[in-house]
Predict the 3D structure of the following.
Amino acid sequence: MFQMVYQYYSYFYDSPAYDVAIVYSNTLDAIRMRFHAQAIGMYNALSRLGLRTTFVTMSQVRAKTIGSVKVLALPRNERLSSGDVNFIMTQITSMGVHIYAECDLPGYTDKYVSKLSDFTTQMTSMGITVNQVSAFESPSYDYSTRIDRVAIQVTPST
């Protein structure tokens, strides 16, 4: 009985080593409802698989205070600040952290929906050929959203 109580206590009250960190950035403010729906769905699925999942801010990622996570998840993170994609690719992956970016065009625009100048270069360095990309998410009418997408060619570099 004591062992069971201790396991329960240590699971919820000791500072756990998280397996997955889901990133929230203030650049996502305009699409926060889509982000929340995507992130909570991801959180619930990962929790059911037995993975310890936490939420971190982009500031924590930049400061490298994300602990010993194995995966950094970026749901709906097409809006990032300039340099974030490069920082994640060079600094975070060098720590042995895997990146899972689940969105249409990760790092395509900033929080003001202005295209980031280094987007094409960053995608090319990851083996993704990006030509004539135009992402547009229209306002919702009658609870529906139209998304205009252009196909991109993905050629894994590793």
The domain at 15-154 is CATH 3.40.50.880 (Rossmann fold). The helical segments are 2-13, 32-48, 58-62, 84-92, 119-125. The CA atoms of residues 31 and 77 lie 9 Å apart.
